[in-house]
Structures are given as C-alpha cells and as structure tokens.
C-alpha cells in the first residue's frame, strides 16, 4: 500500500497583522507595528500550496481561526455587544485586542503533533493539539484547532484526537515545530524525534537566559505516551540554550528533517554526537539508514540562519529518491546562505535542488515555509478517509483565491483592529470558507 507525507498548509487569516507579540522571535519583534497586507499574505501561501501540488506532492489546507477572538476578551472581563466590547478593549487594553486579533494560527507547524499509524500502538494516526501556553495570543488557539482537525480527520477508525496538554508552564507544548519523524518509507515504522528547550522538573538540563524555552521535555514525553509510541521509536534531544537566546525559538528554525535525512546547524543541539548515534541506531532497527548533514557555523552563522530562515524550509522526497528544499526568498538574499545552498546541491548528496518562494508577508511576522505546514503521513486508506474538501486541487485553489480576493483587505494596521466591521468581515469570510472546505460548524460564532 502506498503512503504519503501530506503537507497541510495554514491558510493565512483575514486579520494578518504585525503585532510584535512573539518575544524571542526576532522577525516578529523587529517588524512590530508595520502595516500588513492580509490579501497578499494569503495569496502567497496559496501560491506555494498550488506549486507543490503541481510538482506532484500531496497538499492540503488548514483553515484559519476566528479573529478577533471576542470570547477570549469576554473571559478577561470585557462585556456588551461585540462592537462595544471591541471599542472598550481598544480604549482600555489595546495589547489585549491586538492579541485577540493575532493570525498566528497560520503557522500550523504549531497546531499539533502528529504520529502516523505505523508508529502508534493502536494503528491509528494520532493528533495532539499544542497548548502553546508560552504566549497568550497563541494559547487561545487550541480549542478551535481541535475542532478543525476533528472535522478534517473525522473517521475514528483511522484517526485519534487528544486534547491539548494542561496549560501550565511545566507542559509547554509547541507542536510539530519541535517534532520530526525519520523513516525509510512513510508507511513503515519510524523514529520520532522530539526536541525540547528545557526540563520543568530536572535542573540538570541548562536553560536559556534571555528568551523563553517554549517546549519542555515533560510535554514531549506526555505526547509520546498519548500517542502510544514505543520507547525504541522515540529520541529526545535538547536544543542548545545559547541558540534559543539568539532567536531560535523553535527547533524548525535551526534544523529540518525528512525521510532518513536531518539537515541541522552545528550549534543546534546539546550532546549532538550522542543524539545522532541514537537516531542512527534506532532507525537502523526498523530498516532505515539515517543520514545527517551538518551546516558548519563557519559557512552559516546562527544569525544568518535566523534572518534567512534557512532551516525553516521544507525538505521533500521526490519519486527518484532525491530531495528538494523549499526555501524563502530571504535565503537567496543572504550571500553566505545562498553560497552554502549552491554547494549543498552540487555536492552529489540527496538534496539535489532548491526552490525559492516569496513568503515575505509571513516571513516579516516570523514564519517561513516550514512554519506554514503541518506534516501528516498517511497510507492510501487513511488519505481516502480525510475530508476531501481540504485536499488541494486546481478547482479548490481557484475557489480559495477568489475567496481571498473577495473578503481580504490589502492593508491592515493596529488602528484597524479596533474597527468592529473587521469582525463582521472575518465571520462572513469564515462562514463561506467552511462551506468551501466542507468543515461544518467549527467556529464559535457558528456554534454558539
């Protein structure tokens, strides 16, 4: 039976704005308060989805969330009609209104952690929504994320869904941005690689001093238990706290893996040699041949990696066994990064080609190609059980492009967030989107 890695990309929401909400994310903070272009952002994301589909890759789409999140504002004591609530929040607590308008759910690498059926005890694909409790504006996402994933992967014979972990610091979970799976074939048993920034209960693990470590070891272990993973199929590794303090807020900003290959920066991890040996040994036990490609700091600095998002790329397997790297334009603009990529693809290794995409709107807010997609390994039967409305096709691309052109603004500033009309525009758009994607009622305004 054939198996596939399906990339479900996040559709950028109508309130895409540069709120500068993510402390520790250099791009997010440096572009704070600039005017954004939600329409351009969504169309750039859709263009990448369409291009990958045209290249023969399985591609899906994951819907954005309702914003502003008026229910979250009501929980914080704001009252009245929706319009009155937004007006009061704008006057009394603008940072809270900005947080409630965040379109950060577009970065669906943080939506959940996914384990394929070949790895799990019950032979189903398991999803655990990420609690994202390190940042308030992201911590409010997981209830809707769970409903959307449940509508996409509804067949309980093939899919199992878990609620987000307890929303406390000890179980900070940032989803697939800190999770990679290595395997010989997507339908075969593999090794799941969990990267954490700190331990909540064991002070033997060093912690960063400037920026927060968002993923805990304990959260990663809990997800592995929930998914029924075998000990011999799991490897835990600690991210280097020094690179977290340089703006590497997730592992997918400093490393990317796929199949049997890990591309990583020399400074990405602690105890790197031990980790690589464990990955190689465990993958070998299930028939795999683990290969690692280290990017030396002499060629690409950590600062280069953060500014270009070299590692926040998509590493994709092609039919001939070679690999394709999808990178943002910022990699091409960085002389050292681009020189390294040219040497990498000409070296005769598995990574043979680099394709560049314009994702400027997402990049300026701190998310690249890898942030925009959630990887789900599925066999043919499981793929057939996915809600067909979310699988990208040429007609769906056309419908979504027309939907964006119809509903999205081409300029959004912080002051625009105080406009009650924006909420009405967002709800109208999302109500139509659920019909296009055949999701049913997944948003609070559709349910309450």
Concise account of the structure shown:
The protein is of the alpha/beta class and 448 residues long.
**Overall pLDDT:** 94
| CATH class category | Alpha Beta
Number of DSSP helices? Answer: 18
Give the biggest sheet: 3 strands, mixed
Q: Provide the β-strand percentage band.
A: 15-25%
CATH topology: L-arginine/glycine Amidinotransferase, Chain A
* First-residue to last-residue Cα separation: 42 Å
The coarse overall form would be globular
Strand order of the largest sheet: 2-1-15
Query: How many beta strands in the DSSP annotation?
Result: 15
Overall number of domains? 1
Q: What is the helix content?
A: 25-40%
Give an account of the 3D structure.
This protein is of the alpha/beta class. It contains 18 helices and 15 strands. The radius of gyration is 21 Å and the shape is globular. The strands form five sheets. Strands 2-1-15 form a three-stranded mixed beta sheet, sandwiched between helices. α4 packs across α5 (94-100) and α16 (394-407) runs antiparallel to α17 (420-436). It has one domain (3-67, 102-447): L-arginine/glycine Amidinotransferase, Chain A, CATH 3.75.10. The protein has helices at 26-30, 38-54, 70-75, 82-92, 94-100, 136-139, 142-152, 217-226, 241-244, 272-284, 302-308, 329-333, 335-345, 360-363, 380-385, 394-407, 420-436, 444-447, and strands at 3-10, 59-62, 112-115, 125-129, 159-162, 179-182, 191-196, 234-238, 255-258, 261-265, 291-295, 314-317, 323-328, 351-357, 373-379.
């Amino acid at each position: 039976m054939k198996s596939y890695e399906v990339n479900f990309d996040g559709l950028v929401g109508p309130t895409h704005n540069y709120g500068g909400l993510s402390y520790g994310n250099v791009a997010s903070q440096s572009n704070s308060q600039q005017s954004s272009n939600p329409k351009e952002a969504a169309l750039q994301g859709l263009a990448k989805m369409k291009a990958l589909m045209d290249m023969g890759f399985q591609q899906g789409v994951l819907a954005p969330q309702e914003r502003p999140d008026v229910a979250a504002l009501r929980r914080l004591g704001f009252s009245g009609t929706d319009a009155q609530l937004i007006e009061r929040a704008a006057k009394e607590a603008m940072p809270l209104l900005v947080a409630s308008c965040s379109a950060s759910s577009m970065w669906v690498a943080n939506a959940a952690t996914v384990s394929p059926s070949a790895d799990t005890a019950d032979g189903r694909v398991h999803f655990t929504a990420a609690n994202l409790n390190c940042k308030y504006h992201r911590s409010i996402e997981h209830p809707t994320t769970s409903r959307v994933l449940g509508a996409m992967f509804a067949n309980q014979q093939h899919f199992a869904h878990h609620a987000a972990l307890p929303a406390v610091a000890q179980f900070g979970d940032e989803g697939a941005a800190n999770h990679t799976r290595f395997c010989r074939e997507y339908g075969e048993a593999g090794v799941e690689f969990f990267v954490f920034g700190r331990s909540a209960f064991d002070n033997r693990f060093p912690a960063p001093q400037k920026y927060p470590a968002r993923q805990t070891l304990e959260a990663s272990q809990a997800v592995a238990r929930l998914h029924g993973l075998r000990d011999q199929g799991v490897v835990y590794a600690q991210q280097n706290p020094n690179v977290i303090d340089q703006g590497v807020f997730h592992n997918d900003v400093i490393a990317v893996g796929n199949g049997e290959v890990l591309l990583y920066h020399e400074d990405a991890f602690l105890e790197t040699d031990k980790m690589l040996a464990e990955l190689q040994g465990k993958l070998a036990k299930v028939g795999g041949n683990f290969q690692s490609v280290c990017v030396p700091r002499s060629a690409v600095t950590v600062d280069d990696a953060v500014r270009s998002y070299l590692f926040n790329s998509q590493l994709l397997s092609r039919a001939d066994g070679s690999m394709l790297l999808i990178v943002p334009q910022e990699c091409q603009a960085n002389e050292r990064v681009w020189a390294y990529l040219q040497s990498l693809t000409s070296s005769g290794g598995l990574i043979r080609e680099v394709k560049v995409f314009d994702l400027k709107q997402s990049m300026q807010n701190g998310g690249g190609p890898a942030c925009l997609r959630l990887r789900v390994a599925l066999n043919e039967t499981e793929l057939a059980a996915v809600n067909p409305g979310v699988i990208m096709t040429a007609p769906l691309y056309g419908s979504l492009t027309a939907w964006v052109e119809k509903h999205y603004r081409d300029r959004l500033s912080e002051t625009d967030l105080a406009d009650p009309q924006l909420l009405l525009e967002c709800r109208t758009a999302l109500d139509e989107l659920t019909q296009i994607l055949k999701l049913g009622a997944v948003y609070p305004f559709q349910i309450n």
